[in-house]
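Priority: low. Protein: Ribosomal-protein-serine acetyltransferase. Input follows.
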Amino acid sequence: MLILPPRSEVRARPIETERLILVPIDPSDGPELWLAVNGSRATLQRWLPWVQFHTDPAASVRFAEACAADWDHGRALRFVIRERAHRSLAGVVGLEACVHLHRSCELGYWLRKEATGRGLMTEAARAALGFAFGHMGAHRVRVAAATDNHPSLAVIGRLGFRFEGIARQAEWCDGRWLDHSVFALLATDPR
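Result:
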């Protein structure tokens, strides 16, 4: 079984890396999430089907509330990524679709456009994976990205995931079907 620490415990002692702080999403993060998504809409909506439904600040608050409930009910653990230097919100990284019996989850992530190209997502995702394997007792983490989403595929490659196949027409996004490259990392894989 997966071990999910209480959200309040991780908010009190967030995950820290050299440049980042990962804090469980809280409803109070809603306004900042709205600014990040809305300011990066053109970039994000190409790859993330939920962006089109993120239409106003209230949607961000509802998302943040759902994140808190998902954590509290053991369904998913999502973190706000903040840069340590100025505490600004850079994006979100999550351990989604937790399946306790199989000790598995899925990695998901996005960055606001101003935070891209600096290795922040690789750093944040590596920390989230460390949390999944080291604190939650995960055995398998799956990740998928569109076959032509080269920045996301590069992050996945740097994290040491192993390619498992192509999920054809896996998502309808931004007016087109996206094929997904599917990868996984096991607790027993070398990193």
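The chain has six helices and eight strands. The first strand starts at residue 15 and ends at 16.
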